[in-house]
Amino acid sequence: MEEMMEEYVTFHVTAKDGSDVEMAVVDEFDFEEKHYVVGAVVKDDTIDDEGRYIYECIMDGDDFTVQQIKKEFDYRRIANAYMAMDGEE
């Protein structure tokens, strides 16, 4: 798995059912003075093309942790800002 995923930074989140899910950072951006990462699920050594998920990213030197955006209103606002930025490239 590590050989195929080498080019991506990965992190783990807990799914609603309590299972551990490995995510790959496929993009990152800043919005309203906060940093966010866009993650995609890692399945069988590849990145799942179905869906992207945005998490707030807290940097600690070279390490980082992610935090779920809990309020639906905030998540939609951040996702819309990301999609607008993505469309400009």
From TrEMBL:
InterPro entries in the cross-refs: UPF0473
Name of the protein in question: DUF1292 domain-containing protein
UniProt lineage: Bacteria, Bacillati, Bacillota, Clostridia, Lachnospirales
